[in-house]
Amino acid sequence: MHPRLALVASLAVALQTAVASADPPSRSTVSVGGVRLAGEASSSSTGVRREPGYSLTNRTGSPRVVELVALTGLGDGAPRPLRIEGERRIVLAPGETRSLLIRFAGQPVNRGGGLSHYVFSLTIAVGGRRASAIASNSYVCRIPMRHLTVP
Predict the structure, then answer these.
(1) CB neighbours of 13 closer than 8 A, spacing ≥ 6?
(2) 6 has which bridge partners?
(3) Model pTM score
(4) Angle, vertex CA 102, rays to CA 101 and CA 104, nearest 5
(5) Smallest Cα–Cα separation from 70: which of 119, 132, 118, 137?
(6) What pLDDT digit, counting tens, does each position of 55-91 carry?
(7) Coil, strand or helix: which one is 39?
(8) What is the enclosing helix (H) or strand (E) of 7?
(9) Ordered structural domains, the chain, with CATH
């Protein structure tokens, strides 16, 4: 490998490591009252999805009622509450998994000064107990390594 190409590759790895360690997670998973809430990390090089994606799984042998309590935008600066639109009460059958796109009013909060990167926190309640998980949507710019030239 050419020494300059090796330098570019090592700098790219160092930059990715620094960015990954500085940013909070792009998704998380929690369990409350026998229900698992998992956030999705969605990224695309053609556009960014507005609604955060989550999945709910009832891990018990009886039905569970899940309340969607709050959605918060976690961009730069202070967290911004977002108003959830649509159904806020979900009944999950035993063992059921349901995927959700959470619709909301208002504008998402961008994280960082560049490409669109939206991070959300959804709080649910099951049997009066609350838990929150993170989901994110981002636009990514892909530049294949084969297009980089070293003089």
Answers:
(1) none
(2) none
(3) 0.76
(4) 140
(5) 132
(6) 999 999 999 999 999 999 987 778 899 999 999 999 9
(7) strand
(8) helix 3-22
(9) 25-143 (2.60.40.3880)
